[in-house]
């Protein structure tokens, strides 16, 4: 019985060893195959990518102070009524351009007009009484008191007439200045009260932009300095103006001060209330290294460019000593990825603060196809534009 049990245990042990050997061989084969596949993929030579290039250039840029501003009309009001009454007539259309003093609307003034007739009758009577008493005074029949009383009565009637005519004129609503009307807010027959808005009126040419700068920049700006403005509502167009007012005080809450610039707006494209990016031109110039914006590969972990160099020099300066698999035809140019620190953007160009040197060639297209130390083919037959103030092609 013991002998049979020993034989059974030996057989089980040999079976377990056999299973381990079989399964170990299978897993080892799979691991070896995967390792060889990874080695093949890592050393596989990729075809070179076609790119366009541009040199890193040094330029002189005028220093600018950037801010966000809000457009404001030179004159802008809601034209309101000064009297109470029914709207009798409307003489304008919404959005119309009007001159100063143009009649916009009239309120009914029947009782006031009738009162004018009463006062005119009193005026005629007062004039006759004054003439008669003046004649009697010259003859010595009337006293000086009677003459003064007749004069006062006549003056009082004339004053009442002037007040009544002013009351009637308040029922004629006119434009206080030349400008563009907004949307009509009253209708014929509507009963309005003093202060009710009739229509908005904006003087759009020229136009103001109000913006704030940090107190650290107070000594760097002065009246007459030029500004450039862009508005998201009017893409692709720049507007120029000059600083016309600087608030003498600093806001203690946020340590900024208010400035106002005036811009010409003959086409009335800029409208009150628009947000705008304002750049104040400071006299100081600085030297900057710039590349086309399309050369920058933006990423959360850092911005980078691909420096295009001859294959031998690029490999020699590589920091990691990877072995490059031989290929049937070695590329003449290689792209080396380099992280950079970017600065100000102007048009199609962007400032590079750190990471490149003047004269180096950077890839400006096909960045998604590039890999570090990968081969490239340069094709600059159609180079990208490098414009400080680009405008869209609407043709």
TrEMBL record:
SUPFAM superfamilies on file: HlyD-like secretion proteins
Residue ranges constituting the Multidrug resistance protein MdtA-like barrel-sandwich hybrid domain according to the UniProt record: 76-197
Gene3D superfamilies: 2.40.30.170, 2.40.420.20, 2.40.50.100, Helix hairpin bin
Pfam families: Beta-barrel_RND_2, BSH_RND
Signal peptide start-end: none
CusB-like beta-barrel domain ranges (all copies): 207-281
PANTHER family from the UniProt entry: BLL4320 PROTEIN, MULTIDRUG RESISTANCE PROTEIN MDTA
Family indicated by similarity: Belongs to the membrane fusion protein (MFP) (TC 8.A.1) family.
Name used for this protein in its record: Efflux RND transporter periplasmic adaptor subunit
Source organism per UniProt: Microbulbifer bruguierae
């Amino acid at each position: 019985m013991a002998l049979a049990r020993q034989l059974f245990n030996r057989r089980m042990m040999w079976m377990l060893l056999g299973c381990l050997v079989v399964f170990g061989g299978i897993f080892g084969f799979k691991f070896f195959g995967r390792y060889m596949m990874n080695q093949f993929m890592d050393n596989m030579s990729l075809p070179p990518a076609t790119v366009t290039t541009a040199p890193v250039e040094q330029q002189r840029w005028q220093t600018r102070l950037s801010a966000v501003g809000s457009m404001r009309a030179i004159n802008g009001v809601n034209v309101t009524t000064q009297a109470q009454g029914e709207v009798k007539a409307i003489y304008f259309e919404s959005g119309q351009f009007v001159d100063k003093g143009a009649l916009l609307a009239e309120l009914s003034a029947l009782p006031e007009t009738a009162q004018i007739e009463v006062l005119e009758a009193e005026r005629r009577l007062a004039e006759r009484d004054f003439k008669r008493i003046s004649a009697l005074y010259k003859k010595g029949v009337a006293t000086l008191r009677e003459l003064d009383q007749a004069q006062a009565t006549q003056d009082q009637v004339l004053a009442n007439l002037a007040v009544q005519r002013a009351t009637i004129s308040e029922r004629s609503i006119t434009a206080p200045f030349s400008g563009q009307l907004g949307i009509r807010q009253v209708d014929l027959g509507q009963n309005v009260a003093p202060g009710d808005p009739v229509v908005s009126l904006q003087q759009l040419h020229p136009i103001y932009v109000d913006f704030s700068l940090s107190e650290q920049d107070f000594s760097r700006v002065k009246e007459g300095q030029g500004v450039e403005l862009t508005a998201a509502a009017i893409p692709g167009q720049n507007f120029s103006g000059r600083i016309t007012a600087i608030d003498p005080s600093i806001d203690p809450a946020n340590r900024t001060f208010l400035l106002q610039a005036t811009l010409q707006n003959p086409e009335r494209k800029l409208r009150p209330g628009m947000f705008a990016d304002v750049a104040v031109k400071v006299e100081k110039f600085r030297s900057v290294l710039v590349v086309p914006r399309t050369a920058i590969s933006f990423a959360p972990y850092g911005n980078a460019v691909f420096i295009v160099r001859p294959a031998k020099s690029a490999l020699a300066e590589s920091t990691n000593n990877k072995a490059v698999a031989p290929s049937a035809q070695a590329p003449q140019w290689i792209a080396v990825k380099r992280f950079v620190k970017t600065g100000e953007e102007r048009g199609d160009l962007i400032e590079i603060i750190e990471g490149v040197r003047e004269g180096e060639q950077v890839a400006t297209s096909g960045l998604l196809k590039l890999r570090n130390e990968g081969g490239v083919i340069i094709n600059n037959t159609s180079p990208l534009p490098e414009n400080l103030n680009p405008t869209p092609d609407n043709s």
